[in-house]
What does this fold into?
Amino acid sequence: MAEEKKEKTVLPFNEALYMVVRSIKQRFGRILIVIIAITASIAYMVSLDLLSPILASSIPKEGVGIYTFLLDVTAFIVAATGTMNSLLIMIAERYHEIGTMKSFGARDIHIFELLVLETIILTIIGGFLGYIIGLGIGYGLGGTGDPGYLFGKAMLIAVIIGFISSSYPAYQAARMSPVEALRYEV
Amino acid sequence: MATSLEAVPAIRRKLEYVVEAIDIKKYYKMGKIIVKALDGISFNVKRGEYVSIMGPSGSGKTTLFNMIGGLDKPTSGKVYIEGVDIAMLDAYELAWLRANTIGYIFQTFNLIPVLTALENVMLPMIFVGTPYDQAIEKAKKLLEMVGLGKFIHHKPGELSGGQQQRVAAARALANDPALILADEPTGNLDLQTGLHLINLLKKINTEKKVTVVTATHDLKMVDVSDRIIWIRDGRIEKIELRREIKAEAGEEV
Ligand SMILES: Nc1ncnc2c1ncn2[C@@H]1O[C@H](COP(=O)(O)OP(=O)(O)OP(=O)(O)O)[C@@H](O)[C@H]1O
Ligand SMILES: [Mg+2]
It folds into this structure.
């Protein structure tokens, strides 16, 4: 028997993904707020990127890069803080579930993975919507820019925001003992 | 790499006992007051036994349940599960123990709301790496055994309390645990449904030879228990065998 080799509890990626997708589908209403926060920020970022040459026409050429960068940073901070705030609440509502999973063998890392994965999927959805909306606004107002580059940038930033904003709440939830998590009254 | 439980003979004890609790104390500090939730509790549970821990609200049943289930650590004292001192286990080994050796049933059912009955029962099997097809087959069998063969694709929200608790019982059995631990399993069920669940637990105990320990103040549990450990204020008040109780009540044994 391969008993000795199997002494670590596991959570295969496809199972984690399945659970996360089920969770997103069924809690869509509550989760929408996370998506909206990201959508708005990415739309803001993409449209301003397209419009920055126009908006910055009064400042020297070298300034445009800095200006765009500062706008990106603002969009990033707004999205990350907004997302983390919603996540803190969303994850706290699931402490009971987390405690249950832990009492059936889930380890800290599994809980962390589930929560981060779920958030990243949400921010990718939000990032994509934001990209489309931002492109519409930016071009609609006569902006210019490379849509391929902006797509890459939007998605990358969405994923980074998802990871950064979920790390702390997910870490906190993951390291709770099953009893702490189960005691938690929502 | 975590070491196998089998590979640590030094911490193995007498295997006739599934649970050995030795002088367990659990103190909580509440500001300046120390709450002695458990104040020196010792008992053993033999393989195949059905033991109920009874006592009034606040007597320490849930706290004791958490200690012997490896869900929380005692302030002092030792807990051996299947001969293994659980204080010696690292996080990996503890997760493995929870997944394999113990099956928990909670008062509030605690099913994962977004998963179906079938998936809830499969979850502990997924955690120990059971192949998917095998997990599905076994989960189906378990759900049939608890009388829910027609409800395998229902979500917890679409099931009654009694049905949810039966799903929880099936889930507790997923990895063929040596021990089922149930904290107030009938606490949220009406009389009839509660009786059903108690009979189910007894059936699991006798047919599957699984040791069952329940913490409860449901007196219906007395009839199926081999032994009752009465606790009060974190201490054992008395330990009774069922025959003794039946004799007291003037019934035939
Ligand atoms: N985390 C905690 N912090 C402080 N005190 C606690 C904690 N957990 C339990 N207690 C206290 O320990 C005592 C025993 O609680 P426990 O929950 O074990 O009782 P119980 O027998 O399960 O009661 P019930 O029948 O109401 O479920 C109580 O006085 C309780 O207030
Ligand atoms: Mg209790």
Observations:
- The mean pLDDT of chain A is 89.
- The CA atoms of residues 8 and 105 of chain A lie 9 Å apart.
- The pocket of adenosine-5'-triphosphate (ligand 1) is lined by residues B 28, 30, 35, 37, 55, 57-63, 217 (CB under 6 Å).
